[in-house]
């Protein structure tokens, strides 16, 4: 597996993000809080991490929900995946929302999201008058022919 080097500043007292297993695509991100944060049902808040990164050109960091938090506690992200661009140098903040019917508390050091580093391509638009036809055509939103 190929790897890239990414500069990181960690102002929190938690370890830098790491892969939990050899096959993990994402690294867990921890909350960096002075005191616990409580989210009421349907409430959303930005949760600080104390992490700052400098990605190489052509890469983004995708901040994604953790499936365990989503299914067990109803905590997920408002914008998912959240994108961190290569030219952003601010703190990584996680926009968490409580979709459960009960108040949920987030504590310092809790794993609140995961980060996936992904390569991307820039687009140059080619203006045309028609697109080439495919079997699917314009069918979408359940029109793939499967039941």
Structure description:
With 147 residues, this protein is mostly beta strands. The protein has one domain (7-119): Deoxyuridine 5'-Triphosphate Nucleotidohydrolase, Chain A (Distorted Sandwich). Helix content is 5%, strand content 34%. It is built from one helix and eleven strands. It has one helix at residues 67-73, and strands spanning 7-10, 27-30, 37-39, 44-48, 51-54, 59-64, 75-77, 82-84, 93-98, 104-106, 111-119. A four-stranded antiparallel sheet has the order 2-11-6-8, with no helix packed on it. Strands 4-9-7 form a three-stranded antiparallel sheet. The protein has a two-stranded antiparallel sheet with strand order 1-5. It is globular. The chain starts with 6 loop residues before the first strand and ends in a 28-residue tail after the last strand. The mean pLDDT is 94.
């Amino acid at each position: 597996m190929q790897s890239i080097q990414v500069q990181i500043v960690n102002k929190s007292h938690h370890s830098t993000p790491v892969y939990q297993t050899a096959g993990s695509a994402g690294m867990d991100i921890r909350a960096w809080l002075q005191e616990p944060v409580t989210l009421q049902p349907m409430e959303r808040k930005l949760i600080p991490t104390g992490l700052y990164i400098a990605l190489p050109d052509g890469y983004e960091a995708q901040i994604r929900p953790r499936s365990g938090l989503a299914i067990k506690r109803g905590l997920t992200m408002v914008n998912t995946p959240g994108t961190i661009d290569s030219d952003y140098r601010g703190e990584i903040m996680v926009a968490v929302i409580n979709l459960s019917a009960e108040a949920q508390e987030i504590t310092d050091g809790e794993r609140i999201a995961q980060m996936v580093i992904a390569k991307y391509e820039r687009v140059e638009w080619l203006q045309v008058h028609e697109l080439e036809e495919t079997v699917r055509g314009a069918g979408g939103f359940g029109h793939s022919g499967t039941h």
